[in-house]
Amino acid sequence: MVKNNWGKNGIFIALFIVLISFLIFVINYNQVSSKEVSNYIKYAPEMKDVLTKKQVSLKDYEDKVLVLEFFETWCPACVSAIPELNKFYSIIQSDKDLNEKVKFFSILSSSSGDENYITEFIKSKGIKYPVLLEVKPQLSYNLGVRYIPTLFVIKDGKIVYSKVGPEKAEKLIENLRKVL
């Protein structure tokens, strides 16, 4: 009879291989190819700004570079990205050139909870940037959002940069400046 020497080490090795395979897949998915998305933006349903309660239509910002970050309140990676996104938004707001050319929205679906829960979440996490509620996930579907957080930079109706997973604010600004 052959004795199995894998034991606990074998389980850890197998889990490690699965984790590395997943990370390689996510890294390879990280850069979505540039594609025409102007119709997705133009015909996207209005979304509610969770804090101001105003309806927002992305087509009103077609003349700007749109930065759209998709997230959920229940996603640990999304929550860990909030401080860097606050810095990113602050840099955009304080830089006259960026402020005139760029509009940043974070978008979440109703799977994050009801509006009261989402409002409390935004306040408790100190989110400074606009958060839109996508009740019908049409835009996220059309853009091919499969993982969260996912960030898209859209210029002239095309995805010019995308990122899956959290990113440092400085790196996001660097990539944003490259496409301006």
Which strand order does the major sheet show? Answer: 2-1-5-4-3-6-7
Report the sheet with the most strands, covering strand number, pairing sense and barrel closure: 7 strands, mixed
Order of helices and strands: HHEEEHHEHEHEEH
Shape descriptor: globular
Helical stretch count? Answer: 7
Radius of gyration: 19 Å
Number of strands: 7
The level of helicity is: 40-55%
Helices and strands: which structural class? alpha/beta
Distance between the termini: 67 Å
- What does the average pLDDT come to? 86
Name the poorly predicted regions. Answer: 25-34
Question: Strand share of the residues?
Answer: 15-25%
Task: Please tag this protein with its features.
alpha/beta, 180 residues, 7-stranded mixed beta sheet
Structure report:
This protein has helices at residues 7-29, 38-42, 76-94, 96-101, 115-125, 138-143, 169-179, and strands spanning 47-49, 55-56, 65-70, 102-109, 131-134, 150-155, 158-164. By secondary structure, the chain is an alpha/beta fold. It has a 7-stranded mixed sheet with strand order 2-1-5-4-3-6-7. Helix 5 (115-125) links the parallel strand 4 and strand 5. The longest helix is centred in the first third of the chain and has 23 residues, at 7-29. The protein is globular and about 60 Å long. The N and C termini lie far apart (67 Å).
